[in-house]
Every structure is written in structure tokens, then in C-alpha cells.
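Sample entry (464 residues):
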Amino acid sequence: MIFAIVAALLTALAVAALLIPVLRRHRRAPARADYDLAVYRDQLRELESDRARGLVSGEEADAARTEIERRMLRAARAREAAQAVEAEEERAAGPRLWRRRAAALALGLCVPALAAGVYASFGTPGLPDRPFAERPQAAAESAGTALSEPVERLAARLAKDPDDLEGWLLLGRSYLVLQRFGDAADALRQAAALSGGDPEILSMLGEAIVWASGGTVVPEAVSTFERVLETRPDDAAARYHLALGLAQAGAVREAYEMWRALAADTPADAPWRADLEGLIRQAAEVLGIEPGTLPRAPAAVEAPAGPGEDDVAAAAEMTPEERTAMIRGMVEGLARRLEENPGDAEGWLRLARSYDVLGEPEKARDALRRATDAVPDDLAALRAFARALTGEAGPEAPPPEAAAVYARILALDPDDQPALWFTGLAAAERGDAATARSHWRRLLDLLAPDTPEHAAVRAALDSL
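Predicted structure, serialized as C-alpha cells:
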């Protein structure tokens, strides 16, 4: 019944919006003579003002006034003639106008009546509404139908080309959207292996494992999040889920302390802040203590200036050359800011990505070099710098600077697979077969048998 009332009101509003412009009397636009008269009146006022200020003499003002008044008289006669013609046209068009209005009114009333009849005959007005709680699931199913085919094509391509890191990342994210958490975890395991244990990918993998386990922080998720914290100790997702795992294992006190420590580092507008506070209160209730005042969230750090809505709108109207110039200006602004604050490793990484977009690999490598100088133990910066220096080296020995960077990575993470491979290549190149053999044997232990990578490392060992 409510649907019928709302539909009737909306239909009435739509019909009124269509009919009112047709039925009401249209006002004609002002005639040209009206505009001319307005202009001449302004000229007379300006003339009087100029005369009062002494800019024109009395004789000049009188002559100008006479000319303006003569033009005003001609414009007034033209307006009277136009009004007479309009009146005659309205008298002649009167009957036709009313017939058109009557036809529009009849059509406007017949359309909703016909629509109501068709719906009553073929529709299902008695069908119950879908419960609100089921609507997100229905939306996800609809999105899944649209995504399933391209996702399966991507999975088939990756089966033939398993070394595509970006492809596995895209597949994992797509499975997360489809809520196929087990498949997402499998894809992200491949991406994590290819990236050499990138902490951002590992954090995403850990969450996928938890979701695939129905919200339980299983041992694999625990070990994954612990790997994340080895290189990124402030990762919020890893800290959150490790504490959740402790709570699920019965160590509520430890979970409570970890969550409070995380709350102290979590901004007030973080999307997980409300859930975090709820878990802290639940843990306090289990422990029989008062949570007290939760740690105050730090003030949000002001983000680097970026393009606003006006900049985006302006960019849409630019030529490719102008758009590139605008982007370059933003990149140069970031570079100047980093010169003043060279300790911002994340900023240098953003600058390197920007230079890659602009097609300036030398500047990108220099920015990555600055990032590794700013934070020598930042594995993400070291890995990005090493990849930029190595390029598509593949089975060839890396350049000396890249070999040195990979050695630094191995000192921080002895199981980093690209570092083990390339430091082995560098050792073999300089004739140090013992070191190459040691690195590659360790790499073999980390690789799954019956994979192309395992076969390549085995062949390299045999060549020694």
C-alpha cells in the first residue's frame, strides 16, 4: 500500500512537471526596442553625470541629448509596432493554442492511467520487499555476476604466466570483492612470493586468510602478520589481528594491552577506530576492569598538497602537453618539499613512482636512492631501489650498485628470494662459486618443487 501511494505521488509530480510548462501562458522575450530604450536611458544618465563633472560643455550636452532622444523616439515607435503585430498573432493563434493544451492535458493523464493498467495486469504488486539485511548480499551477487567472467579469464592467463606479480595482485583483490576469500588468499600467496615478502601484500594476505577462516586468526595468519611486523612494526592491520588471535586463544589481557597501544596510534577518523574501541570495551568487560578513558588518537597528519576538484576539472580541459606540464609542476613541488625534509622515505617512494609515470627512470632511481639513504633499514625502499637498478636483468648478473643493495636486503631478511638469486649471480660473476652455491641452495629450500623458479635455480647450481 505504501508503495502504491509513493508511486502515485511521484507520478503526479512527474506529470505536473511536464504539463505546467505547456499549460501556462508563455511570456515573450523582451523585444529589441526594449533593450535599445534601456541603453538610451543609461546614456542620458551618463551624459548628465559628465555634464555635472564638467567633462562636457553645455552645448555638447544639449546636442548629445537631442540625438539620444531622437533615437529613443524611433525605438518607442518600433516597440509599438511590434506589440501590435504580437497582439494580432495571439488573436489568430488562440483557438489552436487551446487545442494543443487540451491534447497535452489528455495525453498527460492517459499515460499514468495506461501504466497503472499494464502494471496491474503484468506486474507483481503483492511481491514482498527484500529484507534490508539481504540487500548488501544481493548487491555483491550482482557485482559478482559482472566480475566473474573477466576474473576467470585473468586466472586462466596467470596459470600460463605465473610470474606476473601485478596480475596476481589484481586477481587477489578481485576475489576479495567477490568474497571468495579462499581463492583470494591463494592468489595473494603467489603475489607475496613474487614480491619477496612485500609487507603491504603480506598484510592483505593475512586478512584474506582470516576472512577465509570465518574470522578466526589461524596459525598461518599469525605467522603472516608477524612477518609484516618484522619490516613494518606500525602496521595497523597486523597489530589488530594479532591481538584478536590472542583474545581468541584466551589471552585476553595481552589482547587488551595490544589494542590499547594500537588505539594510541590510531587517528580518530580511521575507519576501524569504532571497531577497535568496541573490542577494547569487550575485553575490559571480560577482565572485569574499567577501560577508563581510551588513549587519545593523535591529530591527523596533514597530507601533502595534491590536486583538488578544480585542478581535476581543469585537467580535463587541457591538452596532453598542458596536462603533463601540470603534473610535472606537482612533482617538482613534492621534490622541493623533500629537499627540505629528506628523512621522509615514503615521500621519496612517491616521488620515484611519479618520475616513472613521467618516463624519467634516472630521476626515479635517484629518488629511490635518497629513500634508502633516509631510512637505511626500510625494506620496502631497498627492494624498490634494487628492482629499479636491476631492471630486466633476469639470469644476468646485476650491476654492482644493485648487488650491494641486495646484500643490504639479505642482511635484514635472509630469506628474501630476489636478493638470494641476484647476490648468487653476482658471486658467480666474480668467480666466488662457494658463495653463489650457498645462496642458491638456501633459495631452493624456499621455493616450491616442480615450479619454473625451482628448475631455474637448480640449473644455475648445476652450471657451477
